[in-house]
Amino acid sequence: MATIAQSPAGTHQWSRSPSPHEALEAHYAANPDTRPPHPHKWDTSRSDIYFENRWEPIFKEMRAAGPVHYIPESPFGPYWSVVGHKAVQHTEALPEIFSSSWEYGGITILDDLPDIPEEERMRLPMFIAMDRPKHTGQRKTVAPAFTPAEMKRLEDDIRQRTGETLDALPRGEVFDWVNTVSIPLTTGMLAILFDFPWEDRDLLTHWSDWAGDTELATVRALDETRRGMLHEMAAYFQLLWAERAQKGEAPDLISRMIHSPAMNQMEPQEFMGNLVLLIVGGNDTTRNTMSGIVHAFDRFPDQRKLFEEDASLIPNAVQECIRYQTPLKHMRRTATQDTELFGQNIAAGDKVLLWYNSANRDESVFEDAEKLDIRRENARRHLAFGYGIHRCVGARLAELQLRVLLEEMHKRRLRVHVAGDVQRVRANFVEGFRKLEVEVTEF
Q: Does residue 8 form part of some domain?
């Protein structure tokens, strides 16, 4: 692993290890018998159905049979799948009964593996994985960074960086939209939010990839590498924390934590957990929707034509693209008591998975839900940002970045064609693209 020097800004030696996707594929190639088994036909924790983009019919079959289903076997243990829009929303609205707390299991399908020694367990408290009242105080610390006034302050910079990125795109050749557009724009935004050393901003993407992959945590052979990544991230941010602690209040997220009674005394694991939340939440989600937009427009050329003909559709197109892409597939809750959920008896301690990707395809709410429709009247009813007290605190910023991207594409009459390899992320948590080869023309 890399060693960080005393000053974090561009002075450490960074030896780039493989991406988590490369590491996971290499592990499975060398150890094919370790791929997790999935004996239940409705076990949607399996990453291959997302990598191969064949998840929609499975969830459609489940929704037709009911909004809540019990999955008795999976590599992550038994769990309940909540697949209907109304049922997901209802569950989210009952945080006292369906807990998000890391103490019960947190917000992903993962549980502690039984063979991991206590001292090696990576429990990462973060405010999205907390219940009230602690959740409330920490969320209030971060929320001012995403107010309408802050969005107005940030918009000019976002627009300038977006325009420069689009103007630099190669013409007449195929290139990877993910690495050329989606990653630079979202990584740059994260660096601004943290006031992170600009020359080191690529580290944010690398850490986000390692922290946000749930399947990695089930592969013991990669434990040491993953822990090393997270500890390195924490060490870097601790240096930034020490540096900012000597200064006055500022709008960046680290300074907001330092000057917050709810967050300035965090334990190391909690500090690391909140960093993971803010980095993955601010990076993976927007980044993958930026790729999802151009992929969806290529898949539905009639909708791309509507976008090209009428820029006034852009705000609603952003909501529809977020619904269609649904960048986070699931959130997990744990029942704190015996309860009933849409005719199913849930026992205290049961794991409950809220499948946002399925809720956003619910035909009872969204007509022709599997199609992109940028004029969809109820596109804002999507649950991609969650619902209730845990609704995504950075939703406004994601919407702003996506709106500006579409506006700047329209201003330049930029049309993006899928023209080569499309590789999706092999994961059951983040919905995204590893590679999206495209070519740009003008309309």
A: no
Strand partners, 71: 79
Alpha carbon 387 to its chain's center: 15
Q: Tell me what percent of the residues of the chain surpass a pLDDT of 70.
A: 90
Q: What is the total count of domains within the chain?
A: 1
Residue indicated by tokens 């993955």: 280
| Side chain identity, residue 301 | P
| CA separation for the pair 280, 316 (Å, rounded) | 25
**Main-chain phi, psi angles of 42, to 5 degrees:** -105, 20
Is 234 inside any structural domain? yes
Residue 10 lies in a domain: no
∠ CA(429), CA(273), CA(75), 5° rounding?
Answer: 35
Mean pLDDT score of the chain: 88
**What is the value of pTM for the model shown?**
0.87
Environment class of residue 53 by beta-carbon count within 10 Å: exposed (0-12), middle (13-18) or buried (19+)? exposed
- CA–centroid distance for 241 within its chain: 25
Q: How far apart are CA 417 and CA 410, in angstroms?
A: 15
The model's pLDDT over 390-415, given as tens digits with 9 standing for 90+, comes to 898 899 999 999 999 999 999 999 99
pLDDT class of 225 with cuts at 50, 70, 90: confident
**Residue that has been written with the tokens 């959740």 in this structure:** 135
pLDDT in tens, 91-132: 999 999 999 998 888 888 987 555 555 444 455 666 676 778
Does the residue 304 lie in any domain? Answer: yes
Range of the domain at 432: 20-442
Are 432 and 287 in contact by the 8 Å Cβ rule? The answer is: yes
Q: Are strands 330-335 and 68-71 parallel, antiparallel or unpaired?
A: unpaired
Residue whose pair of structure tokens reads 């019919």 in the numeric block: 57
Strand partners, 407: none
* CB neighbourhood size of 423 (10 A): 15
For residue 312, the domain's CATH number is: 1.10.630.10
Q: Is 341 helix (H, G, I), strand (E, B) or coil?
A: strand
- Cα(183)–Cα(283) distance, rounded to whole angstroms? 8
Q: By C-alpha distance, which of 135, 107, 91 is closest to 330? A: 107
